[in-house]
Amino acid sequence: MRGAFWTIGAYGGSVGLRFGTNVVLSRLVAPEIFGVMLIINTLRNGIELLSDVGIGQNIVQNPKGESRSFRDVAWTIQLVRGLILFSLLFLAAAPLGQLYQLPGSAIQLSALTLALMGCASVSGYLLQRRLQFVRLNLFDLGVDAVGAALVIGLAFASPTIWSLILANILTAAIRTIATYFLPDARVWFAWNRQHAREILSFGKWIYLSSLLAFLCASFDKLYLGQAIPLALLGIYGLARNVADLPAALFARLGHSLVFPVIASQQSSSRSELHARLSPLRLKLLLVSAACVAFGTAFADYAIMIIYDSRYHDAGWMLPVMLLGVWGAILCSMNEYALLGVGKPFYGAAGNMTKLVCLVVGIPLALKTTGLLGTILVVAFSDFCRYIPVLIGQRRERLSFFLQDVAVTLFLLVLLGAFILLRWQAGFGTPFDGASFS
Q: What is the pLDDT of residue 94?
């Protein structure tokens, strides 16, 4: 619980920074700039996940994770991977720029972050392995604060795409340098065939799961990037980024808390693991359900108050997306529990199911029902992802299905109460602006 409080607190600070930065940027740059950055960041993140072999997960989960030689091999793989990814994105920038009608040089400049992050020490993963939540979360929050100051300052000086890209590069450089000031940060080039085999063997499922997770998270952005105007894409991206915050919090909780806690207790029986995790999980889900219900009921008014009229269409998009995020929250908690017992396959299977839903549903929905239908497909696709993960939990005797159902019913009842109060007060419902036209 102490780790959860620190993770939630630090993430709350990070969310505040990101949200405040978004609001300031919406005053400084046009929606088209948001659309361009959405595409560039999606492309960069995508190529990064194309070769994710789970360096961090290996250090946390492998019994040799404390070994200096194992960490050196892991860092060497990470560095080589970062340089290769930088080269690939640099070379692919021209055709990608033509596809999305963007300057190829902007994509090439953005690729520098891949090389910089590949040079980072693996010391942060050691903090996660050792359950040192305070230091790890303060480190992440500090870097986020520096990044927010950089992007606002540079956008104020020059409200262009180039200033936002430069801010990303400088933030990546600062994060990389800062990792060498954490405990046990020293690393150097090394190679050991046995260590490399263990890393890559465990990492093959991490690679597949990361690739599928990227496609699930980005297929809508990449498809809509060439199907709707950039200004509308920027508005959609703003709503999507805000809606993703609760899911990102639970992904961080799962990655920073649930995964290392279970990985450190693999010798325990499944029933003991279940008994230890269930109370913490229930408390976190109840708080999350209350926040999602409240956010869904009133998010449209927040958009109208905080953002100028250019972004008001995000007001009807955000409540729909927030309601669908509940499926992502449940999946994140369940997938990291399975990863902690060394079973990453089910997460990959869940993401594959979600991807099929998106690939089939998004083009069909956009053609027949417009953007609202597309958003509904994106929002509720995580409930398809939930099914394979549930099967995996049952097979591994680590299922929380009844708890998930109970908390979901609590969310729906609470959401209904909020909407009823709002409607009786004469403010309509959060979905009034939505239309299938």
A: 87
Burial 356-369 (b: 16+ CB within 10 A, else e): ebbeebbeebbeeb
The pair of three-digit structure tokens given for residue 1, joined into one six-digit string: 């619980």
- Give the three-class secondary structure for 64: coil
Q: What is the pLDDT of residue 82?
A: 87
Phi, psi of 66 (to 5 degrees): -85, -10
Average pLDDT score, the chain: 81
- What are φ and ψ of residue 190, in 5° steps? -160, 160
Locate 341 and state its tokens: 């017992």
Q: How far apart are CA 330 and CA 251, in angstroms?
A: 10
Contact criterion met (CB below 8 Å) for 307 and 314: yes
Give the integer Cα–Cα distance in Å for 200 and 76: 13
CB proximity list for 376: less than 8 A, separation 6 or greater: 320, 324, 365
Q: 370-390 in b/e burial notation, b at 16+ Cβ within 10 A?
A: ebbbbbbbbbbbbbbbbebbb
Q: Using CA atoms, how far apart are residues 305 and 323, in angstroms rounded to an integer?
A: 21
Distances in Å between the Cα of 205 and the Cα atoms of 46, 202, 254, 382, 415 are: 17, 6, 17, 20, 37
CA distance 354 to 217: 10
User: Could you tell me the maximum CA-CA distance found in the chain, to the nearest angstrom?
Assistant: 68
Q: Which of 213, 175, 206, 208 is nearest to 61 (CA)?
A: 206
**CA-CA-CA-CA torsion sign (147, 153, 158, 159):** positive
Q: Which residues contact 207 (CB under 8 A, 6 or more apart)?
A: 51, 52, 53, 54
Distance CA 252, CA 258 (A): 9
Distance of CA 232 to the CA centre of its chain: 22
C-alpha to C-alpha distance for 334 and 354, rounded to whole angstroms: 15
Question: What residues contact residue 344 under an 8 Å CB cut-off, 6+ apart?
Answer: 54, 57, 202, 205, 206, 209, 338
Query: Phi, psi (5° rounding) for residue 344?
Result: -80, -10
For the stretch 116-148, pLDDT in tens is 988 888 888 877 777 676 777 788 888 888 888
The pTM (predicted TM-score) of the whole model is 0.63
- CB burial class (10 A; 0-12, 13-18, 19+) of residue 2? exposed
Residues ≥6 apart with Cβ < 8 Å to 305: none
More confident call, 12 vs 370:
370
